[in-house]
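Troubleshooting log. The previous structure file for this entry was overwritten by mistake, so regenerating from the original sequence record. Sequence copied from the archived sheet and checked twice against the printout by T.R.
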Amino acid sequence: MKKLWLLLGVVVILGLVVCAKPNGAIEVKSTPEGAAIYLDDDATGEKTNTILADLEPDDYTVKLTLEGYDDYSEDVTVEGGDTVTVEAVLVANAFGALQVNSTPVQGAEIWLDGDSTGVATDALLDSLVVGSHTLKLKLDPYKDWETTVTIIKDSTVTVNAELEEKTGSIQVNSTPEGAEIWLDDSLTVKVTDALLTEVPLGEHTVKLTLKDYKDWDTTVTVNADETTTINAALEEAPPEEVELKEDEADAWGYGLLMETGDRLAVKFTPPKYPFELTEACYVPLTWPDWPDSWAAPCNLVFFGEGTQGPGSELKRVDNVKATQQGNWNWFDVSNLDIKVESGSFYFAVENRQDSVPGLMIDQGSPPHHVSWVYDAFSDAWTPWEDIPVSILPVNLGDTMDLVLRVKGMVPGGGQVVLKPTVIHETPSSGSRVTLPADRKYEILDWRELR
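Regenerated output below.
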């Protein structure tokens, strides 16, 4: 009898388990979306569109609220294991207006919430439902412009859109790499290989410059949201040799006697930087009764720019000797590795012994006012400026200057010859002097002039 009751109890429990119903759900949708959902007047914290899950089977009242729209209410019955759907089309009850302007041009097509309005800027859109809306403007060749606006009841919201032109890109490659990139005659901050972005549409000139190579340029067309690729094969630039003509200097019938350690110098200003010094030149003279004086050794010294005249010594070559008297004597100084990055520098010839060698003075068509003299005794530089000489009709530095020159390499692979830099421009105090044909070089003793 006890076994029978136990069996019946098991059957009853199993029956209860089998007959229990699962929970259901309500899918709530609305047009427009974003309405707050209430269930039996209790806020759910959810907004449309969404699913309210795990609801016990029962009758429910679903209410939707959204600013600017009438409340919506619907009764539903949730069955165990089922999902019931509520689809509400909300009715607007509050409206405002939107004034849409655009610069720098008008005529942009106005889109609202993903749909074309059929009108273009500048325009007033009225009878818009209050609340948040997505505004987009479209006009070629400008980028699409988009923002979110909030319409206020019985008010007009104004939007001023600044349209930006569409752009493209240029990928600039070169062999070899490292060339400076110029766009429409303006230097960019990039070197090849590089991508130029935000380039305005249309035709553009691209130029590449690289030391020791010829400049390269081309014209490209940039299209909206596209990348135009340039592949440039750069050609090496042949050295540009500029020879100094001997008629650029005209020997005068005088030279200076200098003491040991004294120097004569001129200032040079390169046309481009960096300037790499390669050669230096002076023209020696022969004193009367001293036939070999022109071949006396001297030192070539280079100085940086000081506050007034030559500054600190850069490098020097000691004990050089000319091979031709009264002529151009060039010396290779490239092993000094002097590279001028900016400004000016000075080249001087320094005496290793008293009086020799004498240096030629230019009386042809010199720049005038270019020379400097260093007195070892006073340890000072003096500009060779309007120095009166009793036996001459003109002053030193007025129509007469030193004949010193240098050569060097400038960007682009060319070798150039530099002429002296004028200290200052002044009118000549006298015309050029004509000497008798039989006149020999005479000595001007600097010790007496200074």
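Residues 135 and 147 are 5 Å apart (CA to CA). Archived copy saved in two places this time.
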